[in-house]
Amino acid sequence: MSDNRVVLAEILQNISNDEISKQVSDMLYNETIDTDLDSRQVPDYKLDFSLSSGWALKENQKFGKKGGGKRISKNVVSYLEAYFLAGDINKSEKYTAQEMHNELKGLVEEGILEEEEIPKVSTISNWIARYAQTHRKLKAQHALALVNRT
């Protein structure tokens, strides 16, 4: 968001103040309105505005797209789920984000995964937090379904 503001400020600064004030004064000077309410006469003039039409529309933004970043591939997610569930089954085998990252690097060395597919440790940590929350909800729903069956 702040990048957009910086770029916009730079664009607006590049437009000379003299040019803008001249255009405004010309516009005010040339505009004539009859006192007769039936006919208003405004001369044809075009304001030379350096920004193209529709420049502020959201679909014309070049940056700041939410969710436009790199995603974790489904292949990597399946490995992360396996590591997470291994720790869920046996608490002594819980994997930290760093340990999961190291395991994924081992899979790269074996040629199973590509180096570009491996997410950062912070990304894995965020994935663990989201997945743990989803996993807890699913376990609670499953437990409720079992209770309701009996």
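The record above closes out task 2.4. Task 2.5 opens with a second protein, given below.
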Amino acid sequence: HGPDQPTSAAIEAAAQAAGLQYVHQPVASGYQSPEEIAEFARLLQALPHPVLVFCRSGARSTRMFMAAQAL
């Protein structure tokens, strides 16, 4: 996580304060395993919508979303 990026704990606290469900699924920047992608796809189906997915640059979020959609 970058120096200007809030911690997972801070994001979780803000989400809970707003009445939102929070899930943290850390993934490495260079490679997302088939198991991580499958878990991400499961979460996308199970969580209430809309779902906000993000990472520092947006690249991992986009790759995970596209890979989950392809399952």
